[in-house]
Amino acid sequence: MTETASNLPRLLGEAKRWFDDALFTGMEAAGERPVTVAQAAVFSVLPAEGCTISEIARRIGVRRQTVHQAVHGLIGMGLLEQIPDPASARNRLVRTTAEGARVHRRAQATLTVIEDVLAQRIGAASTGELRRLLSLPWGEPPRVQVPPGDT
């Protein structure tokens, strides 16, 4: 049986796992408490001024309940807090604590080192081109249908 070429979503997923593994290993080596992939995703989209759990879920592309669980775990670790939303009495904003900001800065510095390692391995030009290509606007996801004979 021959192995088929990996599709692009699989390759992107494997690349994401490579970064996640390196980040989590680096943070643990620095003495930081471990977080889950979902908790790290919250930090990756959380603006400095904070936002609602619903907005975080929209930015990540997961259910609100998933984010709620991740956020409350991070609140328990002292990395996030919830405050009343000054624009709406019905909402609460999630934002980083001082400790959360410190950990986030360390994670960002760790990611910079990881990107440098990637540049050493595949070349700085390739790493720059990868960043450029992934930064291009893709537009809305297409709504496609495979013709019946192609399945």
From TrEMBL:
Which residues does the UniProt record annotate as the domain HTH marR-type? 28-127
Q: Which InterPro entries match?
A: HTH_MarR-typ (IPR000835), MarR/SlyA-like (IPR039422), WH-like_DNA-bd_sf (IPR036388), WH_DNA-bd_sf (IPR036390)
Q: Which Pfam families match?
A: MarR_2 (PF12802)
Q: Which PANTHER family does its entry note?
A: HTH-TYPE TRANSCRIPTIONAL REPRESSOR YETL, TRANSCRIPTIONAL REGULATOR, MARR FAMILY
- Name this polypeptide is given: MarR family winged helix-turn-helix transcriptional regulator
Q: Which organism encodes this protein?
A: Actinomadura yumaensis
